[in-house]
Structures are given as C-alpha cells and as structure tokens.
C-alpha cells in the first residue's frame, strides 16, 4: 500500500507542478500606485480664475500711427540745379599717388626675381 500511496502522491505532485508552471489563467495584479495616481488626476479640478486675471499682464492694444507721405519741395527745379552745380565732396579725402611706369616694372621684376631665386638652405638638425 505504501507504494501505491507514494505513486499517487508523486503523480499528484507532478500534476500540481505542471499546472502551476504552465498556467494559462494569470492572476491580474493591480498597480496600486498607478490606480491612486489616476484617481487623484481625475479628481483634480482647476481653481477658477478671476475675471480680472489679465489686468497688469496684458498691455492695451493701440493701432500704430498712420505714416505720412513724403512732401516734395516747393521749387523742385531750383533744388535740382543746385545739386547739379555742387562739387562732390568726400567725407575723408584720400591722396592718390601715381607711380611711374619704370617703378612698377622694376617692382615686378624684383618680385619675379625673388620668386625665381632658390630658397636659402637651412641647417640640418639631427
């Protein structure tokens, strides 16, 4: 008898372990913190704002002034003739020096000879 009882107990244990390990009906766990958060979130009511809440925060709007059209001078022809007669004056006069052609040629020749010259040899550092 003891062997039959032992066999029945082992079969029952195997059946129990299989049913627990591969159970298809999972127990739904409630997230208490999430439920509490959602409950408080749904229960929150914003306080009503007073009707004068915008006073001091929003500036009063006013339309910009209408631009005035430019006015033409009374005697336009006299002003145009005065403009034509005036000599142009630079804000800061610049002196222009004209180089003689020989100086320019000599300068270019000197520059070209400098470019064609060999570079000075440097001492080798070991």
Automatic annotation (TrEMBL):
InterPro entries, sorted: ATP_synth_F0_suH
Report a single Gene Ontology molecular function: proton-transporting ATP synthase activity, rotational mechanism
What PANTHER family does this protein map onto?
A: ATP SYNTHASE SUBUNIT H, MITOCHONDRIAL (PTHR28207:SF1)
Q: What is this protein called?
A: ATP synthase complex subunit H
Q: Which organism is it from?
A: Laetiporus sulphureus 93-53
